[in-house]
């Protein structure tokens, strides 16, 4: 009996202790009201909108660090965010159809700080006209960059009114437009800060001797540094502009008709400060190359599919342009540029860092000379060369100590050449092999195993790209392409597009995909906003 009584007493004690532990917090809360105040203050702080205390400038800096999609989603949070996001956006891309005109006042009332504007229209649609461009120029007087694509309704009058209102313009790029020489001259006469001019398929310039030339203007005499002309039937109308650009640094001529030898002679006599010249599918011969050799500061030269250029012209350039760093030659398999010109480059241009040969047939003689005399050669591409085989690759591997990137395409190279790369070129980081029938997958795998740090790409199907990092540009996170109505009333269009999908309407933000978790800042803003809503 005694044991049963004690056994019965034990669980009663445990239950009493358990009850005492459960009742303890209640008694403590009653005795210490300070803890209750702390809990209530935490609840209040959790519901407080801390972003309301954040200055507009700080919020604008956050928006500028976001991508285009996140920025548009942030603008849907509230009216304040919509206003700040619009005022902090400096780059804008619009669909430049004719129906954009009535939205321009409201559009640029929101985006009142735009300095870089792109107006692109589909070729099958009717583009904006002079009235729209003039209205834009009145709203964006601080515009520094303008890109026009297929705006066929623009005339000389519209470009003239734009140039008078946007005198701070630094870069103009126009393609498939129909305004003429008067509009272009108006830009050059009024925009004294213009630094870059790119023109492609400008049909409004009158062809023939009666055509009005493109004059130098105020811009050419002071600030113009880059001129790029593409696919122009009458590109030589820009001759006076090029000759008058005293500070011109870069000249690019792509697929422009006419004989350019005489014009290049006059240009080279008056403009000697050029450091970069691109000639592609142009009627130019050794006479033009001899004129280019007067540019003693030339560092970058591209000769692409200019079959009249031979070793003679390349030798004249090499002997005088001793600062040459990048040389691209597409010989179009005409066999007019070969060892003679390349040896002259090797002997006269010790600073050569990048060499791209397409449709050119160098031999071991020129390759060995390049390797011995160009100690800074880091990037080499050999494409469509019938004379580049295993012997030439072995020479490159043994001699090109500084080489970092090698591209070989459509050359008679085999696995034997890869064996030489395994022990040569100690600074090599990447090898690209494409359409080399003698190279097998086993050979590429063996090279990877022999040099684990070396990236080997075999028959990837990728096009050959310029190895220089300067030719590429980083993506601008602040760029956006908006239809006019969406830019003005994004909230209402966002609701309409979401409701049409038939998804749940319980959460406004989830329907709009607002503030996705791809960015830490966006996540933080989302948490603060949800607390405020709660």
UniProtKB/TrEMBL annotation:
F-box/LRR-repeat protein 15-like leucin rich repeat domain boundaries: 283-445
One Pfam short name: LRR_6
Chain segments carrying region Disordered: 1-30
Gene3D superfamilies listed in its UniProt record: 1.20.1280.50, Ribonuclease Inhibitor
Ranges of residues in domain F-box: 51-84
Compositionally skewed regions (Basic and acidic residues) per UniProt: 12-22
PANTHER family with a match to the protein in the record: F-BOX_LRR-REPEAT PROTEIN 8-RELATED (PTHR13318:SF92), PARTNER OF PAIRED, ISOFORM B-RELATED (PTHR13318)
Name by which UniProt lists this protein: F-box protein At1g47056-like isoform X2
Species for this entry: Prunus mume (Japanese apricot)
Phylogenetic placement of the source organism: Eukaryota, Viridiplantae, Streptophyta, Embryophyta, Tracheophyta
Gene behind this protein: LOC103320372
């Amino acid at each position: 009996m005694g044991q049963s009584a004690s056994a019965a007493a034990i669980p009663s004690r445990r239950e009493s202790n358990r009850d005492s532990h459960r009742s303890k917090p209640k008694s403590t809360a009653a005795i210490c009201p300070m803890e209750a105040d702390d809990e209530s203050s935490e609840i209040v702080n959790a519901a407080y909108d801390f972003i309301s205390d954040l200055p507009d400038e700080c919020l604008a800096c956050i928006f500028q660090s976001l991508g285009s999609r996140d920025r548009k989603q942030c603008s849907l949070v509230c009216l304040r965010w919509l206003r700040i996001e619009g005022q902090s956006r400096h780059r804008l891309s619009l669909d430049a159809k004719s129906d954009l005109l009535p939205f321009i006042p409201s559009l640029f009332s929101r985006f009142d700080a735009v300095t870089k504007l792109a107006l692109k229209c589909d070729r099958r649609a009717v583009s904006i006209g002079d009235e729209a461009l003039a209205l834009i120029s009145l709203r964006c007087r601080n515009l520094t960059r303008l890109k026009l694509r297929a705006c066929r309704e623009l005339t000389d009058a519209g470009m003239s009114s734009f140039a008078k209102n946007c005198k701070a313009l630094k870069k103009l790029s126009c393609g498939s437009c129909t305004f003429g020489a008067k509009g272009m001259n108006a830009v050059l006469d009024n925009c004294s800060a213009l630094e870059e001019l790119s023109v492609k398929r400008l049909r409004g310039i009158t062809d023939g001797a009666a055509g009005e030339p493109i004059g130098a203007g105020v811009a050419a005499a002071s600030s113009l540094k880059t001129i790029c002309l593409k696919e122009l039937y009458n590109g030589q109308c820009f001759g006076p502009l090029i000759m008058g650009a005293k500070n011109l640094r870069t000249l690019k001529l792509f697929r422009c008709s006419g004989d350019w030898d005489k014009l290049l002679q006059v240009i080279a006599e008056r403009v000697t400060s050029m450091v970069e010249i691109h000639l592609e599918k142009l009627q130019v011969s050794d006479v033009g190359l001899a004129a280019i050799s007067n540019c003693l500061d030339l560092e970058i030269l591209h000769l692409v599919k200019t079959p009249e250029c031979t070793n003679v012209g390349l030798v004249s350039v090499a002997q005088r342009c001793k600062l040459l760093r990048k040389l691209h030659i597409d010989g179009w398999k005409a066999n007019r540029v070969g060892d003679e010109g390349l040896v002259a480059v090797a002997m006269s241009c010790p600073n050569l860092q990048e060499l791209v040969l397409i449709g050119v047939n160098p031999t071991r003689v020129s390759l060995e000379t390049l390797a011995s005399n160009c100690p800074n050669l880091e990037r080499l591409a050999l494409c469509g060369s019938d004379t580049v085989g295993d012997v030439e690759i072995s020479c490159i591997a043994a001699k090109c100590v500084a080489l970092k990137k090698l591209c070989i395409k459509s050359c008679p190279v085999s696995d034997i050449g890869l064996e030489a790369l395994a022990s040569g070129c100690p600074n090599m980081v990447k090898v690209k092999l494409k359409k080399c029938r003698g190279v097998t997958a086993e050979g590429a795998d063996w090279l990877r195993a022999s040099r684990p740090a070396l990236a080997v790409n075999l028959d990837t199907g990728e096009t050959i790209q310029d190895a220089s990092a300067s030719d590429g540009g980083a993506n601008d996170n602040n760029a956006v392409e908006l239809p006019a109505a969406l830019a003005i009333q994004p909230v209402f269009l966002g609701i309409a597009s979401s409701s049409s999908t038939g998804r749940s309407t319980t959460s406004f933000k989830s329907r709009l995909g607002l503030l996705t978790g791809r960015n830490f800042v966006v996540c933080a803003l989302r948490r603060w906003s949800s607390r405020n809503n709660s």
